[in-house]
Amino acid sequence: RASRGLCYCGETEQAVYMSPSIEYSSHPRYGSVEFNPETKQWMQVVLQCRCDPGVVWQKKSETLHCKQFGLVPDANWSNDTLEWLFKPNFVDEQGRHYVQDAIVCTGIMVRVTDRHPLDTERWWSMDE
Q: Does the reported pTM lie above 0.85?
């Protein structure tokens, strides 16, 4: 479902935000983190999707201030194109906006750790 008023959308624009990078998408700001008290482990889930690149409305820079700190979330992608925006092309009966026929979920990527992902050695925890 499309969101309104986020980083690259004005108050009137709506878009679905995606990223070609699982490394970037797995930052806890985007990939939600849950704690299981029974197993005492942290779990994080990121959806793997196939996107029609011809439907991308805008390719934008990352929004985690990586450049400011000299961080490169994923060597396979430029920091300038880590956020892909898709304009909604469908409105349901309740007035909610969606992208239809351009994004297909192909997998569920799961990470389970004994430590919170912010406390693990990932690109976001590297010191300058």
A: no
